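Private note to self, pasted from the team thread so I don't lose it. Backbone tokens:
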């Protein structure tokens, strides 16, 4: 059983919290998503020590420091001070935290500067745990990684799922366990192979898989369509599984395209109409990955139209996620049209592929 922070009494939360967050995005949307958790901890707990990562550094890399995140978080908390700690001398940090007044918030630097983090090192986990009385994971986006601050640390402290983590588990669970039919998955993005796990998990659950982007190009190419110089997967290791998928009756590829210099850069209006019709009847819609080259506005048209079609279907439970898709939805103010926006990229894809996420398993 997962212990949820939302259900923990004030007594359990009275001490110092070690709070794992995920600041691994360019903007602050993952930070905003965890504000309810911080508010709850500020109400009941003595002090909060926030830990996170950014990028994939090999040792210290100033460009990947979290120093700026302390400023961003402080701004989101209405100017409340967030003390940034730029070293990992844990005994010193422990004393500094203990001496601070109640309600203080600290942010440690990028944990991936430490070699033990990605190795799920129990010694690092013990050092992190020494700073607090209990642990909260509100970093769904990194919970597919068995890292010391995600998995090993749960062996050292009473551990809770934060409020955003709870939302993710409930919403993604609703879409995967017993989704209401018709179930429609809109799958785009550059690589079809990245979506293979999701397609095979949903093979008997989804009514339709609507493909766009590089994913569609690959499937069309495997069906003998000349996609010319368009982005596609041609890794021989992945082709047998992709060929299987291409033959599924529920997998619908685009029928018209927007071309530029022998490259498909968006799906065409006929396809948008056909996809929108299917979306209009759906009771569950999951969308991951843009349908076109959305960096350029003229190739974002189909993705905008599909997001709007999802938004118009008020009866459907709709989910989206993945860094690129979410940034796009926010840019066009379409994110609020979805029932739930996941903070996860790879984590969401793994969850939707039916995989057990080590960070969530560790909380059980
Ligand atoms: C993410 O942004 O998807 C997570 O923070 C995980 O990052 P990683 O793929 O570098 O482990």
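Design output:
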């Amino acid at each position: 059983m997962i212990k949820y922070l939302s259900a923990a009494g004030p007594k359990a939360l009275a001490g110092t919290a070690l709070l794992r967050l995920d600041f691994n995005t360019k903007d602050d949307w993952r930070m905003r998503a965890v504000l309810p958790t911080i508010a709850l901890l500020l109400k009941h707990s003595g002090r909060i020590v926030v830990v996170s990562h950014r990028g994939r550094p090999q040792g210290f890399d100033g460009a990947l420091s979290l120093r700026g995140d302390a400023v961003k978080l402080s701004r989101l908390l209405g100017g409340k001070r967030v003390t940034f700690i730029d070293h990992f001398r844990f005994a010193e940090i422990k004393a500094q935290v203990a001496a601070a007044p109640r309600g203080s918030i600290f942010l440690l630097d990028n944990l991936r500067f430490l070699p033990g983090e990605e190795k799920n090192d129990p010694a690092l986990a013990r050092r992190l745990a020494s700073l607090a009385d209990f642990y909260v994971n509100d970093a769904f986006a990194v919970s597919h990684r068995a890292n010391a601050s995600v998995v090993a640390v749960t062996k050292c402290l009473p551990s809770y799922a934060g409020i955003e983590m709870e939302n993710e588990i409930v919403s993604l669970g609703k879409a995967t366990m017993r989704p209401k039919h018709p179930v429609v998955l809109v799958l785009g993005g550059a690589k079809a192979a990245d979506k293979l796990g999701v397609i095979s998990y949903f093979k008997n659950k989804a009514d339709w898989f609507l493909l766009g982007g590089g994913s569609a190009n690959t499937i069309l190419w495997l069906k003998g369509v000349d996609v010319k110089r368009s982005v596609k997967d041609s890794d021989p290791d992945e082709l047998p599984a992709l060929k299987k998928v291409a033959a599924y009756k529920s997998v619908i590829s685009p029928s018209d395209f927007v071309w530029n210099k022998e490259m498909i850069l968006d799906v065409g209006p006929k396809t948008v109409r056909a996809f929108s019709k299917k979306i209009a009847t759906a009771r569950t819609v999951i969308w991951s990955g843009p349908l076109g080259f959305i960096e350029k506005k003229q190739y974002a048209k189909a993705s905008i139209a599909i997001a709007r079609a999802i938004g118009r279907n008020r009866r459907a439970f709709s989910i989206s996620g993945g860094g690129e898709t979410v940034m796009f939805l926010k840019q066009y103010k379409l994110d609020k049209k979805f029932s739930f926006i996941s903070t996860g990229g790879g984590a969401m894809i793994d969850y939707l592929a039916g995989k057990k996420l080590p960070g969530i398993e560790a909380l059980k």
